[in-house]
């Protein structure tokens, strides 16, 4: 078989290749580091990524956003700092420590380029215990088998702070370093007494566990919690309503804020368009319908609990929207 290639057809082919290359060059890839697949970051990240991508109802032209599973806050900030990710979710405390070189980042280089896109929703500190483990307070964790999450997560940092507030450390427990999903599996098998998790409720892994195993939530309250909040102003009082998880009554605890952060190196125009898409009608519908925490992600809350500077692109949008002076 032979093909007759005319000058005109060759020119058309070259033009199409050039156009295709130009379109590819204009495409922006924007990763969102989230957390474990059984937590809250991952599904929320997926909803936002789908909504702001070019295929979304009010998405950014040429943008391909993806939610990437990770170890959580610290891992996401490290990825942003190294250029391995364009953005990620972080607890407000971890973001503050990273930017200021304090707390968890004491003695380490400051992540001075860390910038805020939006505060999303409150992240509740859960201490989930087997109902038959006899754990009624944080102090009762002494001598128990307790998972405090993986290294690199925000949960492990807060777990250590809470234990210390009640006079305990990892030496006083038999520590495990597992995400909520594997923690729930070990608890079902009777191989774990309790686990910490910081995230929006209802958390899928805990809901699944409560459906098959009798659990309780351990309160973080009293003078110890009050001092913890006074010493660490990124903490706030929080309440988990009764029956959020099957058979579990109302429980008082503490929370931090979930934030979407990026690098100052990201283009102002790109982050402006991403922020605008985040607060579009299409994203609003997706968040409201997609997850229980979605309804708490509001434009008004976006500029609260900042702790670190806003990215100039996000700041421009919030000023135009009238929620930031």
UniProtKB/TrEMBL annotation:
Keywords, alphabetical: Signal
Endpoints of the signal sequence: 1-25
Gene3D superfamilies: Periplasmic binding protein-like II
Pfam annotation, one family: NMT1_3
NCBIfam families found in the cross-reference section: TRAP_TAXI
Protein name: TRAP transporter solute receptor, TAXI family
